[in-house]
From TrEMBL:
Keyword Secreted on entry: no
Listed GO MF terms: phosphorelay sensor kinase activity
Domain of life from the UniProt record: Bacteria
A GO CC term assigned to this protein in UniProt: membrane
Protein name: Histidine kinase
Coiled coil region boundaries: 146-173
Xref: InterPro entries: Bact_2-comp_sensor_kinase, HATPase_C_sf, Sig_transdc_His_kin_internal
Amino acid sequence: MKKSVSIFTVLITITIHFIFWIGIYFFYNYFLGYGSNNVKYVNRFSLFLMPITIFISYFFLYYLVPTYLVKKKQKLFILYSIYTFIVSFFFIVLSIFFGLVFSDFLKSEDITPITKGFLFIILGVYFVIFIVITFGMFIHNYKQSIKNEDLKNKFLQTQLQLKEQELKFLKMQIHPHFLFNSLNTIYGFALKKADKAPEMILKLSNLLDYILYQVEKPAVLLQDEIDHLKDYVSLEKMRFHDTLNVSISEEGNTENVQIAPMLLIPFVENSFKHGTIIDGKLKVVISIKIENELLFFKISNSTLEETSNETGIGLDNIKKRLEMLYPNGHQLKIEQENQLFIVALKVKINSLNILKNDH
């Protein structure tokens, strides 16, 4: 298939070149014979100018230009162009001489054979050569721009694929970590044969459905993320018993708001994992607010001053995902003060980079 397309392209190119030079031949007839009725003489004389015109034009177009000018060797291009001009001048004069000699028998006593002088004929040939080079350079630049655009698209596509693979890798890190904590909690309850174990399994089942199926979507409803966030908090409350104090507040209209899946839950997971029980309580405060097409998410947890939540898989992965999913549409602030570790996230709702999210 590719070979047939290539042959077709070559044939089209040859046809275009042939038609072009036929046009140049008629141009010579018009240019040299304007005002003359000796058509046969002019036709024959024009034929003698065609070979040298074609040769010089192609020599410039397919050798000097790509070898020196395109490769930015301007000095060499100018030097060899001067050499070519000198040599070509000799051959043009030779072509004119043979044209005059071998067309002499077609002269008529009362008819002027050609109406242009020696200098005009030479200028006419160089004018044609200049037109060919200019036209050829235009086509070359056009093809090069198409080629560069194609390379750019391939490069962007490769980058996109790499980003998608990186996102998948990050999710693979987040999900096992998340499930590991939850399964550990259920295992502890199962050992104690606690009555809450079935409820925990049901909540975990809902979370698994969200992780395995919904999370593969480029975007999910914010309300779904919040609902599953609450399920996760419920699981942790069962694990921590009375040592966990969590408050969740919602403000604004969350309907029809879409975000990247698993965007908020890892922050909550990180708070439980690295939070510290102080005075018998691990305090976690979660705030979710929608205002002016912006999502404001804030979470704080109790921690000791020497404890840093910013290490490990958790927040590092979250930062990378945010850079890929909301490259120019998020602000993440992390700070620690007064035995509180605080994470504040602001996201432009409509800035989700769907193309870079894994499908």
